[in-house]
Specification:
This protein is of the alpha/beta class. The protein is built from seven helices and 13 strands. Strands 7, 9, 10, 12 and 13 form a five-stranded mixed sheet that branches. It is elongated, with a radius of gyration of 32 Å.
Length: 273
């Protein structure tokens, strides 16, 4: 922070007085030559320090706004990928000369870094009819080529776009007998599906929050979730993993299991309260 003119002036005078050669210049007049010179120099130093402060603020702002190489930067750039468009290099930066939002196929992106191996996993999905689905093989290949051009030098990236993980919820729902159980159950299944859709991409499924979503359904008096069973799309429902608290989606997003015997309709039991 820039010093004031009076502060600088005082320091100059203190230094002068401590010098045996200059201490003889001790006129009390405020317009003495040495005082005028020292004041002019103080003003110049103060102005220079103000300029340094302004430049420091400017450079700090540039540094704060520059996120190149970070996970946030890579995620933002992945969302800008235009399938079928070609990048051009302008001022040493790969860019699309004609931005076209209609060609952007990546709707969701999550970056996961492995600090031990140095690999960066790029999870992606796209929206089709308001539902997340995996990218096509051609879209994944195009995205890989795009990332190879915009990533930080030396960064080892892998792209993953998979069918949704599937989940079954083993729960007992205690309902108010003044409500029809089938109606309450339908609304519970809707609440679970909505909860799954609203989780951040590659965010965790937290059983206690899933329970809160069910509890908020009209007609539900109490709920006990025994566990949730999850599986990747290539695994069978019989081999699903059991979780009682938290699940990190492998694909980045989850949908209710569609296998007979494991659907929400099958695994949620309605009990009169």
């Amino acid at each position: 922070m820039a010093r004031s003119i009076s502060e600088i002036h005082s320091q100059i005078l203190q230094t002068k007085n401590s010098d045996s050669t200059l201490s003889a210049a001790n006129s009390p007049s405020q317009v003495s030559v040495y005082r005028l010179f020292s004041y002019v120099i103080s003003f110049a130093i103060h102005l220079f320090e103000k300029i340094l402060d302004a430049k420091k603020t400017e450079y700090e702002k540039i540094a704060d706004e520059s996120n190149a190489g970070t996970a946030l930067y890579l995620s933002a750039k992945v969302l800008e990928y235009q399938h079928g468009s070609t990048l051009s290099v302008v001022n040493n930066t790969p860019v699309y000369l004609v931005p076209d939002a209609t060609k952007r196929v990546v709707s969701k992106c999550a970056i996961r870094e492995n600090l031990e191996t140095g690999h960066v996993l790029v999870k992606v999905a796209k929206l089709v009819n308001n539902n997340l689905v995996k990218l096509t093989e051609a879209e994944v290949n195009g995205l890989k080529a795009y990332i190879a051009q915009i990533k930080t030098a030396g960064q080892k990236t892998m792209v993953s776009s998979l069918d949704a993980d599937q989940i079954s919820v083993n729960a007992d729902v205690y309902y108010d007998p003044s409500f029809l159980p089938d109606t309450v159950k339908t609304n519970v299944i809707t609440a679970i599906t909505t909860y799954l859709k609203n989780i951040d991409f590659s965010g965790q499924i937290i059983v206690s929050r899933l329970q809160d979503a069910i509890q908020a359904v009209e007609g539900v008096k109490d709920v006990q979730i025994h566990n949730i069973r999850t599986r990747v799309s290539t695994e069978t429902a019989a081999n699903a993993e059991t979780h009682t608290r938290i699940y990190d989606p492998y694909a980045g997003y989850v949908v209710p299991d569609t296998t007979n015997g494991y659907t929400l309709q099958d695994t949620i039991q309605m009990i009169v309260f």
